[in-house]
Design goal:
Strand content: over 45%
Largest sheet: 3 strands, antiparallel
Number of helices: 1
Helix content: under 10%
Strand order of the largest sheet: 3-10-6
Number of strands: 10
Length: 148
């Protein structure tokens, strides 16, 4: 286990940030044979300039509990690439339902992204999570419970 400090946007991307200290664990996971494709569709018009990274609001998509999201790079907008998926507020653990409502967009050319444009497709894969015990944690747990 490690204590980490999460830094996240409180109200809007590029707005006020907050910090939270949480306990974190390394995870292993197994991806199952079932998945879904979701479309990230622009919810606003935006002028984009080549190599000026910006956020674009998208129609909300729900990410089910115990699932991971990976981009599908065979479909993208002609003007650029989605480099990251975003939402505001305190990050939620993978075991909980999450909602994505924005993207970080890297324009490859000048132009206008219009409301309703398909920005990219994402793969949502269901996963079985496997928490790994930190080195020494198993021994410590055994010693506390089985004192000789």
């Amino acid at each position: 286990m490690a204590k980490i400090e999460l830094v996240y946007w409180k109200d809007k991307i590029g707005g006020e940030t907050e910090r939270a200290v949480v306990d974190s664990y390394s995870y292993g996971f197994t991806v199952g044979p079932h998945g879904e494709w979701e479309m990230l569709i622009a919810k606003e018009d935006k002028e984009v300039k080549k190599n000026e990274i910006m956020n674009i609001k998208v129609e909300k998509i729900e990410v089910p509990p115990k699932s991971i999201v990976m981009p599908c790079f065979i479909m993208r907008h002609a003007l650029g690439v989605v480099s990251s998926l975003t939402s505001v507020g305190k990050p939620r653990p993978v075991e909980e339902r999450r909602v994505l409502d924005g993207v970080i967009f890297h324009p490859l050319a000048d132009g206008k992204v219009r409301k309703g444009d398909l920005l990219c497709i994402v793969n949502i894969f269901y996963a079985a999570l496997e928490r790994r015990l930190a080195r020494g944690a198993a021994e410590k747990w055994l010693q506390e419970r089985y004192k000789y």
